[in-house]
Design goal:
Helix content is 68%, strand content 0%. With 97 residues, the protein is mainly α.
């Protein structure tokens, strides 16, 4: 397995731990910011990820779901980002829209 895919696995583990209450979301966000910066992905991945992490960070201020910040939806979007990153890292020559 490549180093990039191992990094992505660590990010996914942190996401799962955060969702299960085993890791504070703020710690998961910091890990994602740090680790994502090391991934050899096109700039558009960062353009999507950083605002998403910002929204998750802001959602921490709310103890329950609000009309502006659905943690469940934000975390699902983060998982979708990770899935697309995995596809890109697994096949870097494939053109992706």
């Amino acid at each position: 397995m490549s180093a990039a895919l191992e990094t992505l696995d660590r990010m996914n583990t942190a996401l799962a731990q955060s969702q299960n209450g085993q890791m504070p979301q703020s710690e998961m966000i910091q890990l994602w910011r740090t680790q994502a910066a090391t991934l050899p992905l096109p700039a558009r991945f960062d353009e999507v990820l950083q605002p998403l992490l910002d929204r998750i960070e802001a959602s921490i201020l709310f103890s329950e779901e609000s009309c502006s910040f659905s943690q469940k939806d934000l975390l699902a979007s983060l998982q979708m980002w990770a899935d697309k990153a995995r596809l890109r890292l697994s096949n870097p020559s494939a053109a992706q829209p």
